Give the backbone structure.
Amino acid sequence: MPNPNQRVSEYILVEKIGAGSFGEVWKAHHHVWTDQLVAVKIPIDPQYVRNLQREGAAIHGLHHPNIVRAIGFDPYSDPPYLVMEFVPGSSLRPVIKRREVNIDQAVSTMKQVLAGLAYAHDQGMIHRDVKPENILIHERCGREGYHVEGCIKVTDFGLGKAATSTAVGSIMYSASVHGAAAAEIAGTLDYMAPEQRSGGDVDKRVDLYACGVVLYELLTGERPAGTDLPSDLNPKVPKWLDDVFKRSYSRLDKRFASAQDFLAALTTGSQAAPPPVPSFGVPVIAPPVGGINPPPVPMGRPSHCPHCRQAVVGDDNFCMHCGVQLVAHVRRCQKCGAYPDPRDRYCILCGEGLPAGSSV
């Protein structure tokens, strides 16, 4: 069993910062350069040595800001060890439990996770065990924001193999353990895609399914159950994120084809959301026409688009320069799709009657 002040390769163990059913992770410093901190993973169960060998081989060639970097590796020493980049902070699990992230931070977190997985997939590696415990949050996220490159890192590629291999071996191995190990595996099952649970052939899309579960947790604080969408539990979640979740947490044929596709959906969806609607001041009611009051006409609208800062016309629904939506609700003819003036009672293109404030 590893102990504080024990030397492992060039490093001195300081304190245990993580433990699983098969191994421990220790914070350590270089024996000479004491300010050089690393994380050392050491197996405490002989069965874990093979997984350690697999993980060391897997992450050796993975160099990406969103993947924990391997520094040293010797599965044949006593004790065997894997030296990795030290990430000050915590895993994503306590962050989810404390509901510390808002919608934008949740999206930024998932973007960085997907960026790391996209790179690993391109190298022929599948993670197979994506879950909050294997996503590390650097402490600077709290100071600088969750969008800062490299502040979210994926770790523990211990179950990762070449993209053409299957999950049968790992599932058989998991079924042979009991006690704390069995409890850990039971929790992991919530993140496993249906084809992975059944022991069939798998590809990189199993990681995208797991990312969908993590995204749901980030948005709601809970794991998916039944047909509930994120917005059913958290009304602040926009509908486009419901659609993104459905495309990840789905059958294989309907799931995102790649991490890049998943990432693109998060990127374009967040950009499509309109900016906060500017204050229009006190509305002025135009005189009644034929005994019917037209909808209020907003006055005092800013003369510039809040997104691109270009000049806009008073009654425009969209900015003519960047296309961003300028009003909370776009008034539109339900028959032909035209955009009538706020004071129009009939569509000038098809003659359809327009209820006050009508839109589609």
In short: The longest strand covers residues 11-19. The chain is about 30% helix and 15% strand.
